[in-house]
Design a protein that fits this description.
Length: about 260
């Protein structure tokens, strides 16, 4: 951009930083408000109708976002030192997202250092729900449409976070616009994975567009321990999906 618009690199950096900050500060309260009881009821109803999953109030997952940083001899906290050095030997920050059944992001946590694994990320947030096919679609949409996420981000940690914040806000703004007006200007039907006959999945076109991206799966760094209450909920879902919640094609998929 510096060469394209004949503006100094420092000026470009300031413009991007200030623009992203402005988008986040002004759009965040509008497109990412805190969910209330009625919101959660609506989200649960959508998951039940569209995904045959009752009592679900969000699909959640996290990804590393790789960043390229120029490390100085004396590394400052904003220049991504060992704290941001992940298990794949890259520097990264973590993006944790919870979405509803319509691919609208309802909760986001951005900027946890890449060195931390999934247990620490979830422990430091206020949500802990299941993850599903739709959350994979959300990450696919972000990487496919927002080209900044097609490769490692060349920025310091602070600026990388601001750019991702802006992307999240703009994604929700455009997605809500489509839903409210019943249009598909932002996301077409064939853009995302869709269930078809006998439980098979027709892959969305975003998978063709995104061969590589800045996203990387979070590594498990702790034992898969859980509370007894969580185990009880899991068993209740298992019973439900094998009895009154069973769909006609599920055994075909299991025993393929």
């Amino acid at each position: 951009m510096s060469y394209q618009y004949l503006i100094s690199l420092s000026s470009i950096t300031n413009i991007i930083r200030e623009t992203c900050l402005c988008i986040w500060e002004h759009l965040f309260p509008i497109v990412l408000p805190k969910c209330n009881t009625e919101d959660f009821k609506e989200i649960e109803n959508d998951f039940s109708n569209k995904w045959n999953f009752p009592h679900c109030v969000g699909a959640i997952d996290g990804k590393h976002i790789n960043i390229q940083v120029i490390l100085k001899l004396k590394v400052s906290s904003d220049n991504a030192g060992s704290e941001y050095y992940n298990y794949k030997e890259n520097h990264s920050i973590i993006l944790l997202v919870m979405c509803d059944a319509n691919y609208i992001i309802r909760y986001v946590d951005i900027g946890t250092p890449g060195r931390q694994g999934d247990a620490n990320v979830f422990k430091n947030t206020s949500y802990d729900e299941n993850r599903m096919q739709c959350i994979e679609n959300v990450f696919g949409i972000l990487a496919s449409i927002w080209r900044l996420l097609r490769k490692s981000i060349l920025a310091n940690v602070s600026n990388a976070i601001k750019m991702i914040q802006a992307i999240i806000c703009l994604h929700n703004w455009l997605r809500k616009y489509d839903i409210e007006r019943e249009t598909d200007n932002y996301i077409t039907i064939d853009f995302v994975d869709q269930p078809i006959a006998e439980g098979d999945i027709q892959e969305g076109s975003w998978r063709i567009n995104v061969k590589e991206s800045a996203f990387m799966n979070i590594n498990c760094t702790s034992r898969r321990t859980h509370f007894l209450h969580a185990a009880h909920i899991r068993e209740e879902f298992c019973r439900f999906f094998n009895e009154e919640g069973e769909v006609g094609w599920q055994n075909v998929q299991i025993y393929k």
